[in-house]
Amino acid sequence: MTNKEYRDHEGISRSELFKIAKSPLHFKYALDHPEEKTPALIFGGAAHKYILEMNDFDKEYAVAPICDRRTKEAKAEYAEFLSGIGGKEIISLEDIGNIREMRKAIERDPNAGRFLYGESARYEQSFFWADEQTGEAVKCRPDCLIEVNGRKYIVDYKTTDSCEDGHFERSCRKYGYKLQAGMYREGVFQNTLDDYGFVFVAQEKKAPYAVRVYVCSEEFICEGYDQYRELLGLYHY
What we know:
- This protein is α/β, with parallel strands linked by helices and about 240 residues long.
- Helix content is about 50%, strand content about 20%.
- It contains eleven helices and nine strands.
- Strand 6 (about 145-150) and strand 7 (about 150-160) form a beta hairpin.
- The longest helix is centred in the last third of the chain and has 19 residues, at about 220-235.
- The model has no long low-confidence stretch (mean pLDDT about 90).
């Protein structure tokens, strides 16, 4: 299933549910006013695709040629480029160069590499379930499922401005990453009946592309599950 097919499928996602944490009004507004794709969002999506599914990158992204579009010849060259890419997202040559270096940095890091590139890794699996308490349709799409040292993990890859102490932890609170851990483990369990741990692999977006691995505690995941139950109940109401 492609990412677009997943987004179009019935069910409330983690990112949608987290908007209710601010208020139901903000959630409703976001539904009626879909977020436009900014350069930062496109870069993040491209990084995810290349880091996790490098061999399929060209199916969804096209690298723009370097040309001065103020000239007639360059305009024609760029128009020809656009006519041949279909519905692919456009990314610059500079950005794809940075993303390639980001992947190399992960491959050099043995801790990050074992959680993202092990033989048992399965990427971008889509899960759907009906919540038993509310009957609501719910969905999630983990970046990676993998087994490490006999333990099964859901692994989520995040780009970040910094891997210094405390920075990613603040992002967890700001962007609802605790909710994600609890909700995703519930979704995978509902589909597989297997108990998974949860890991974040965080990477800086600028050189030297530092990487840090966060293995979530059981307390962290359970608190995220409690938040999931609370927000899903509010959504249902």
